[in-house]
Write a structure and sequence with these properties.
InterPro entries: DGC-Regulatory_Protein (IPR052163), GGDEF_dom (IPR000160), HNOB_dom_associated_sf (IPR042463), Nucleotide_cyclase (IPR029787), Rev_trsase/Diguanyl_cyclase (IPR043128). This is GGDEF domain-containing protein. Pfam families: GGDEF. It is built from eleven helices and 14 strands. By secondary structure, the protein is an alpha+beta fold. The protein folds into three domains: 122 residues, Haem NO binding associated domain (Beta-Lactamase, 2-Layer Sandwich), CATH 3.30.450; 37 residues; 165 residues, Reverse transcriptase/Diguanylate cyclase domain (Alpha-Beta Plaits, 2-Layer Sandwich). Strands 2-1-6-5-4-3 form a six-stranded antiparallel beta sheet. Strand 5 and strand 6 form a beta hairpin. Helix 8 runs antiparallel to helix 9. It is rod-shaped. The relative contact order is 0.08.
Length: 339
């Protein structure tokens, strides 16, 4: 290797040296790295590369006529990396030097050929571009991770805002949201407004820890008596609302209420003490409501609950649509649990 070849290797690592017939006499180190398994020396330039613009060159004379013009070409075999170049004739020695670069294909080239900074000329802006891409990738990755953390935190905050921390049930805010959505869709559903009887006695005699335990056990029972698409919410100290996301007839609603009351009347152990409660339930079917207004529906379920309380507790009253059931027209129908 003479001094001129070493100079070209240092300044133009992607160059090719063409002889008078258009055959490669020598290639720069970076160019050799692109086809490590091929013997490039002696190959005809236009057999190795496809000239895409301009398309007029078919011989070395045609190439020589393009001296100084920007060339757009690509390898004919795979990977068919796109290249840019410029050809300059070698005075006296015959032939020409073609200096090549990757242009906008530099990212693909680095990936395909495992190139490093030593494969580029010191003045090649590709190095700065690669650094910028790397920095941008790192910044985007950091931004994506931050957004993911923010999304998780946002979801957690929303979930916390809609959750009763003691029982894990939905809270009143969540119930209002679900009830408004279900009522707005126009499909049939049912509400049970449930109040724990004798809960204050547990709190007063055994303490708040026992009361919390009873609330948690009651919540588990209610969840067990509903489906995943239904909603169970704690809306007050010992008040709960169960929203059944489907239409129910009175007989089915009566069975559910009786089963809930029966299970809640089972003794609940708290350490060596026994807690006893019951439940009063006010029920409302959406088809029986006087209006599909969430606030009005909750009021009518609440009226049925108070009627159950006044009837002696441990029972359910179903709010009728109009006249019917026991009692005066428009009065709730009482349903007592079997002894």
């Amino acid at each position: 290797m003479n001094d001129l070849d070493a100079l070209f290797d240092r300044l133009c690592p992607m160059h090719v040296n063409l002889g008078p017939t258009g055959h490669l006499r020598r290639v720069g180190p970076a160019m050799a790295k692109l086809r490590p398994d091929h013997r490039l020396r002696g190959r005809r330039f236009l057999e190795l590369f496809e000239l895409q613009r301009p398309r007029t060159a078919a011989t070395m004379c045609d190439l020589a006529a393009l001296a100084g013009q920007p060339l757009h070409l690509r390898f004919r075999d795979e990977p068919s990396t796109a290249l840019k170049g410029v050809l300059m004739p070698l005075p006296g020695a015959g032939g020409a030097i073609v200096n090549l670069s990757f242009g906008i294909s530099v990212l693909e080239a680095v990936r395909d050929y495992d190139l490093t900074s030593t494969d580029f000329a010191a003045t090649d802006l590709a190095i700065e571009l690669l650094y910028l891409v790397e920095a941008n990738t790192a910044a985007m990755d950091a931004s994506r991770k931050l957004n993911q953390r923010l999304d998780v935190a946002r979801v957690a905050a929303q979930e916390q805002a809609y959750t009763d921390t003691l029982t894990g049930l939905k809270n009143r805010r969540a119930l209002d949201h679900v009830l408004a959505r279900v009522a707005g869709h126009g499909r049939d559903f049912a509400l049970l407004h449930l109040d724990l009887d004798f809960f204050k006695t547990v709190n007063d005699t055994l303490g708040h820890a026992a009361g919390d335990h009873v609330l948690q056990q009651a919540a588990r029972i209610m969840v067990a008596e509903t489906r995943a698409e239904d909603t169970v919410a704690r809306v007050g100290g010992d008040e709960f609302v169960l929203l059944f996301n489907r239409g129910l007839d009175r007989a089915t609603l009566r069975v559910i209420a009786q089963r809930l009351i029966g299970r809640l009347e089972q003794p609940i152990q708290f350490g060596d003490r026994t807690c006893r409660i019951s439940a009063s339930i006010g029920a409302l079917r959406s088809v029986d409501a006087t209006a599909r207004d969430p606030a009005r529906m909750m009021q009518e379920a609440d009226l049925a609950l108070y009627a159950a309380k006044n009837a002696g507790r441990g029972c359910c009253r179903i709010f009728p649509e109009g006249a019917g059931g026991a009692g005066a027209p428009g009065s709730p129908t009482v349903v007592r649990r079997s002894a």
